[in-house]
Each structure stands twice: as C-alpha cells, then as structure tokens.
Specification:
signal peptidase activity; transmembrane; protease; mainly beta; 2 helices; EC 3.4.21.89; Umud Fragment, subunit A; 7-stranded antiparallel beta sheet; 4-stranded antiparallel beta sheet
Length: 290
C-alpha cells in the first residue's frame, strides 16, 4: 500500500509589524513682531539724535557778523564734535555728566572753533584760534603779532556783500549803490597767514581801539580767540564780562570745530511766500568747508 503524503502546509511564522512613527507635534504658532508704539519710537529717536549731536556732528547758526568774511549772519554749519575731545559742554544743555574733558586734543592755530563763552560759559561763540598755550599775542597798529613776530597781512580786493535783512553796513562810508539800484557793503580785506601756514581773510575797517593791545601770554589749558572781522568782534582782546569780551578761553569750553556749511540765507524769506524760501538762499555758500 502506497503511503500518501501529507498535503497540509506547514504553519508559517507571523510577519513582524514595525511600530508606527509618532505623530509630529503640532507647530507652534509664530509670534508676531510687536510694533513699537509712537512714544517708544519717539524716545529712541531722541536718544539717537542726542548721541549724534553730542559725539559726531552738531548744527550751529551764525547770528552776527563778527566772523566776516568767512561767516555771514544767516549761515548754518555743521561742527565736528570729536576733534577736541568731549566734555559736559559737548552734551545737550551742558548736562554735567563728564567731570573733565576726555579724549582731549589741542586745536591748531587757525581753526574755526565753537566754544562756550566766558564768563557765563552758557552761550555758544564761534571764533578763530589764534594763540595756543605758551604763545604771546599782541596787536600793533592793526597787525597781529605772535611771539614777537608780525603775522603777514596782505591787502586783497574788498569784501563785497549785498545789504539784506541779515546784513547792514556798519557805516555809510562802506555803502555802495550799484547800477541796478541795490546796495552793497564794501569792506577792506586782507590775507593773513599764520606761522603754521594756515591762511584766511580778515576785515580791517580802519583805526580802532583794539588795533593796539598789550602782549598777552596764553597760560596752559587756555586759548586766545579772535574774530576775522577784527573791528567788529568782542573776543580775547577784551576782558571777560557780561555783554562784553570773553578774555582767554579755557580749552574745557571747546564744543566743536566748524566743518561744512549746510545752509545760508540772507534773511529775506517769508514763511507765507514759499518762493522766497529759495530766493533768500545763498546757494553759492552751501557745501563750503573750513
């Protein structure tokens, strides 16, 4: 008898099942950037402007003619704040946060510098640096003398400036009526050259009391400052007094060095007549450097 084969298949091993991957966590919603409120923006803006004005550049306007011919009444310039270092006078409202000048550097003869004027030390003046510590400064017959030597002074063509709301000739002797009927001021002008080679123009209107002074030795830490309009400038030739001269200027009072002219107007603009904003501008002066 033939044996029969067992047709029942062998039982197979179960197929392993991989565990399911964990479901991804739901994405967190992105936080929307919160916009600053206007007061916060305003505070930030004030801080940025204060830093810029205190340590980089600060604007100044010229309210007088004591620095003619270089600076005219109605000029607006930028002064660099870093050349002479920083003191409390560099800060807005002269806030007393710096006990002494930091990063101090001495000016050069001929610099046009802004400083707090003695004796009050609360008003910004702009003059030219003439005498440094150790220098002897004297005027003799209208000629500047430094350390016993006359500073070269050469006559050049007259300085001419139109009469305007910002410019009124000091005396009728300087007034000239032009062919078109307009009036101009004609001032005697001279080229002065300091020992370091710095050269600039000054006005000399004739014999005045300040044309002859006693010799002054500039002490350490102070400066002898003069206006380029030699006969119309209350400067270091006159003792410091309220409403008068300024005497010698402490270097601690330095605020900045004139750098670039950013605007100039003859004062004839009328806010209610927009076209006069342009006709009053002295376009040829804008952008000039010192």
């Amino acid at each position: 008898m033939t044996a029969t084969m067992n047709d029942t298949p062998e039982a197979s091993s179960p197929t392993p099942v991989e565990p399911a991957a964990p479901a991804p966590a739901p994405a967190k919603p992105k936080k929307e950037k919160k916009e600053d409120s206007f007061p916060v923006f305003l505070i930030k803006l004030v801080i940025v402007v204060a830093i810029f004005r205190s340590f980089i550049f600060s604007p100044f306007n010229i309210p007088s003619e004591s620095m003619l011919p270089r600076l005219e009444n109605g000029d607006y310039l930028l002064a660099a704040k870093w050349p002479y270092g920083y003191s409390s006078y560099s800060l807005p409202f002269s806030v007393p946060l710096l006990p002494k000048r930091i990063f101090a550097s001495q000016p050069e003869r001929g610099d046009v510098a802004i400083f707090k004027a003695p004796p009050g030390n609360d008003v910004d003046y702009i003059k030219r640096v003439i005498g440094l510590p150790g220098d002897t400064v004297q005027m003799i017959n209208g000629v500047l003398h430094l350390n016993g030597q006359a500073v070269p002074k050469v006559k050049v063509e007259d300085f001419v400036i139109p009469v305007s709301p910002n410019t009124d000739c000091l005396s009728a002797e300087f007034v000239v009526t032009e062919a078109d009927g307009s009036q101009t001021c004609h001032y005697p002008q001279f080229r002065e050259t300091l020992p370091n080679g710095k050269s600039y123009n000054v006005l000399d209107l004739g014999q005045r009391d300040a044309d002859n002074t006693v010799p002054v030795v500039v002490p350490e830490g102070q400066l002898f400052m003069m206006g380029d309009n030699r006969d119309n400038s209350m400067d270091s030739r006159f003792p410091a007094m309220e409403g008068g001269g300024i005497g010698l200027v402490p270097q601690e009072n330095l605020v900045g060095r004139a750098t670039v002219m950013m605007w100039s107007t003859d004062g004839s603009a009328n806010w209610f007549l927009p076209w006069t904003w342009f006709t009053a501008a002295r376009w040829n002066r804008i952008g000039g450097t010192f």
